[in-house]
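Input (MORN repeat-containing protein 3):
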Amino acid sequence: MPIVKYRRATEPLWHEWDGKAQKCGLRHTVYAVNGDQYTGEWLDNLKHGKGTQVWKRTGAIYSGDWKFGKRDGYGSYSIPDPITKEYKKVYTGWWKNDRKCGYGAMFYPGGERYEGEWSSGLQSGWGRMYYQDGSIYEGQWLAGRPGGQGMLRLPNENRYEGGWKDGKKHGPGKFFYLDKGQLFEGIWAADIPKCGILIDFGRDEAPAPTQYPIPKV
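Output:
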């Protein structure tokens, strides 16, 4: 009886190559087609764990946690200075689904700085903002702007305490004119005081009090 030999089935060579190309675990630097590079941990061919990403077009660097290909966890994002080429930190804190989320600090051009809570990439919750002119806002934020209750302290120590909406004074609030020794308490709308009462407050300690005190009604 003749013996029939069947040809042994073999997998295509590209199957073997594809299997070796699947990234999982710690890898050395992997370069993308556009020149971006990533060094760190992988899972199922996605960035997952600890790793550092460098974007070729901008030179920006992110170093921190990843989850299924997106920044997720704690990490820092830096960009090179266009003149000195030295890296300057832009954001350090928590991320979720590739956006700032949780507590973090943002460093802006000109020296401004925000420290506080984030949601979906925007300031949201409690936070403190240091402005370039020396003013400081501390309080609640909503969708990237002061919203809720907060205090704004000006460089001359005058301050506003009260409600905010869309980044402007809104609702009941108090403005302390400590340089003149006066206090305005009233209602605000879109940064404009609509009605209220102005009284003397700390007039004896004020550096530049008004010439005459406000008479009591």
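The CA atoms of residues 162 and 173 lie 4 Å apart.
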